[in-house]
Specification:
The complex is a heterodimer of chains A (116) and B (548).
Chain A (H helix, E strand, L loop, with lengths): L12 H36 L1 H8 L4 H28 L16 H10 L1
Helix pairs in contact in A: 1-2, 3-4
Chain B lengths: L6 E2 L16 H5 L4 H29 L10 H36 L8 H23 L13 H5 L4 H28 L12 H33 L12 H35 L6 H14 L15 H13 L1 H15 L8 H24 L1 H7 L3 H31 L5 H27 L14 H27 L36 E2 L18
Antiparallel strand pairs in B: 1-2
Helix pairs in contact in B: 2-3, 2-4, 2-16, 3-6, 3-7, 3-8, 3-14, 4-6, 6-7, 7-8, 7-9, 8-9, 8-11, 8-12, 8-14, 9-11, 11-12, 12-14, 12-15, 14-15, 15-16
The chains are: A mainly alpha (116), B mainly alpha (548).
């Protein structure tokens, strides 16, 4: 593949990376609007119909919400750690090979180390 | 002054056009070429236009008699719901951005493709997926909520495939979000050397404005409709008062998207018309920055006017007054555009070709739709005509008279560039005039109907309204002929032996006219460098249409 084709339609890697970053920021902005809709709905109901809102909240199961939150936060943590490790190790390299965590596959080893 | 070349770029070599670059199905359905994806969109939106138009034909036939003899009450509700849903989400919103925008945005800024070509193809597949779901709704039960999905009708009482429709609209939203994202990044990061922000064509400015709305408004609609589906399916009380919800909340969330959606439909049209007017006048546009920033102003103010759909909903009168003021304020940037187009044409050497006829028709219909919009923005008048045919006529003047006319104008203007063929100019002029006349006969009587009290979404009406309804239906038949004509002569131009288009058949400025018709696979041979202002007429090397 010719050098100028690698980053097509961009001229070089730096510009392609710039564009990726901008695209991701715009995507996040649209996600904020998406979830902003739910938060706005919850806020409006809370402000406009306080007693009903409080009564409805009584039907919620505390353990379900807690478990849900814990799972969500853990999955975010794993994704963030995976990104860190991918950046640190790169393809084909074995990071942290001198540790006692040798039995784990490299990606897990990296994530375990950072988490500890 | 006109001796120097307009654009410095390497001389044309013989290059394969993007159309000749592979003929297999695979080369079309797995393409990442923005030009081919634009054509995929053109075929698919034309199909959905036919679906929506079929529903409109049923509606107009049913309204010929005061008793509504053709359709049942339920059948009529389904016909206008499908008409609205298909026309808004599957034709009008993607029409100009995804066909003309997809084809032209990279070429106009001197790029070889959109920033994320595979994302572009993905957004077409998402559109097709949601379209197939909508077709399933049309055949399998229909939906009777109207395109607005008002609660509690949609979440509690409506029959039919409400959830399937909501999921279809939800999915199609992601197609437009990805397109908007792609356009913004492309316009920021892929402009050719020398293509500064002050040299961007106005078509690009309006697509930039519309992309902002795509990215920021569409997600709100998506989540709102998902909440309706959640309430309908598993009884989560958001909009149903019996479950502690608030039905008006839906209207706020819905119109927060759907009023900007009107500008999604009309902003690209404004960009198209700016190009058509300057090309026909052979003059630099009057007040470039005013026209450019009017697009941005419409997009920004458009986020703050949703309450004017809710003047009779019982919202606070002070809120209504503010929404009324802001809605009237939108008229300012819109009027700036109309004045600037008019001044651009003033004392110009005008070439009266079909694209200009469409553009002039657009201006007239857009002004009529805009002025009646001002009436609807005023509290007292709006209360009188809320939910009547006056509103129906108003938004058809903007969405059909405005957007569809501009889409046809743009299609005629760039057809030689897209296909490399010239169509029959005489037939095109007749079609443009026929569409203008047919449109006015169809929708002007609806202003009168509405002002006299004919409510929208009723198919049984008092006999005194029949004359105006019959005139409107006859106009619709004329309009249908006008819309069918381009389908015939444009396809005719593609047959073997059709006249070949030169690179610049209109003698227009702009990067897209410096490359061959149809453009090569990567749009340009080498990287174009821009050295002049936009719309720098008279051109250094104008080519008349007869040279082809």
């Amino acid at each position: 593949m010719a050098e100028e084709e690698r980053f097509a339609p961009f001229a070089d890697a730096a510009r392609a990376r710039d564009a990726d970053r901008l695209g991701m920021l715009i995507f996040l902005a649209s996600e904020i609007m998406l979830f902003g809709g739910i938060f706005a709905a919850a806020l409006a109901l809370r402000l406009e119909h306080g007693p009903d809102y409080a009564a409805a909240a009584g039907h919620l199961k505390l353990w379900l919400g807690t478990a849900n939150t814990a799972i969500l936060l853990t999955s975010s943590l794993m994704a963030a750690l995976a990104a860190l490790c991918a950046a640190a190790s790169g393809p084909g390299r074995m990071p942290y090979s001198g540790t006692t965590l040798r039995i784990l596959p490299p990606s897990w080893r990296c994530m375990a180390l950072i988490a500890l | 002054m006109t001796d120097e070349p307009r654009f410095e770029h390497p001389p044309e070599e013989a290059a394969t056009s993007y159309l000749a670059d592979g003929y297999s199905l695979r080369s079309w359905f797995l393409t990442t070429d923005h030009k081919r994806i634009a054509l995929l969109y053109l075929v698919s939106i034309t199909f959905f236009f036919l679906v929506g138009a079929g529903a409109a034909a049923l509606i107009r036939l049913d309204l010929l008699t005061p008793q509504g003899d053709l359709l049942s009450n339920d059948g009529y509700n389904r016909a206008f719901s499908i008409h609205g849903i298909v026309m808004v989400w599957f034709f009008l919103i993607p029409a100009i951005p995804n066909v003309l925008g997809n084809f032209l945005v990279p070429i106009m800024i001197g790029a070889r493709d959109l920033a994320f070509p595979r994302l572009n193809l993905l957004s077409w597949y998402i559109y097709i997926l949601s379209g197939l779901l909508t077709l399933y709704v049309v055949v399998g039960g229909g939906v009777d909520t109207g395109w607005t999905f008002y609660t509690p009708l949609s979440s509690v009482y409506a029959n039919g495939a409400v959830v399937a429709t909501i999921v279809a609209v939800f999915i199609s939203g992601f197609s437009t979000i990805l397109t908007g994202l792609n356009f913004i990044v492309t316009i920021h990061k892929l402009r050719a050397p020398g293509m500064t922000w002050s040299r961007l064509p106005l078509f690009i400015w309006s697509h930039y404005a519309v992309s902002i709305i795509f990215v920021l408004a569409t997600p709100v609609l998506a989540i709102t409709l998902l909440l309706v589906a959640a309430e309908r399916l598993i009884g989560i009380g958001v909009f149903d008062p019996r479950l502690g919800g608030d039905p008006l909340l839906f209207q706020h969330l819905f119109w927060f998207y759907s009023h900007p959606a009107v500008y999604i439909m009309v902003l690209p049209a404004l960009g198209v018309v700016s190009e058509l007017i300057t090309a026909a006048a052979h003059k630099r546009i009057f007040g470039y920055w005013f026209v450019a920033f009017a697009s941005i102003a419409i997009a920004v103010i458009g986020f703050m006017v949703w309450g004017h759909h809710m003047f009779v909903s019982g919202q606070s009168v002070y809120a209504s007054a503010v929404f009324s003021f802001l809605s009237i304020a939108v008229a300012v940037p819109s009027a700036i555009k109309v004045y600037n187009w008019t001044v651009t044409l003033y004392k110009a050497d005008i070439a009266i070709d079909a694209p200009l006829l469409f553009a002039l028709g657009f201006i007239g219909l857009f002004v009529a739709g805009g002025l009646t919009g001002l009436m609807l923005a005023m509290l007292a008048i709006d209360v009188h005509v809320t939910d009547t045919y006056f509103v129906v006529a108003h938004f058809h003047y903007i969405m059909v008279g405005g957007s569809v006319t501009a889409f046809f104008g743009g299609l005629h203007f760039w057809w030689p560039k897209i296909t490399g063929r010239l169509y029959n100019e005489t037939l095109a002029r007749i079609a443009a005039i026929l569409i203008l006349i047919g449109f006015n006969i169809t929708f002007f009587p609806q202003f009168m109907l509405g002002y006299e009290g004919m409510p929208r979404r009723y198919h049984v009406y008092p006999p005194e309204f029949q004359v105006l309804h019959v005139i409107s239906s006859m106009g619709a038949a004329l309009l249908a002929i006008g819309y069918a004509m381009p389908a015939v002569y444009l396809i005719w131009s593609l047959l073997p032996g059709g006249r070949r288009a030169p690179a610049n058949p209109w003698g227009a400025s702009g990067l897209e006219w410096t490359t061959s018709s149809p453009p090569p696979q990567h749009n340009f041979i080498g990287q174009p460098v821009v050295v002049r202002q936009p719309y720098d007429y008279p051109l250094a090397h104008p080519v008349s249409r007869d040279d082809g």
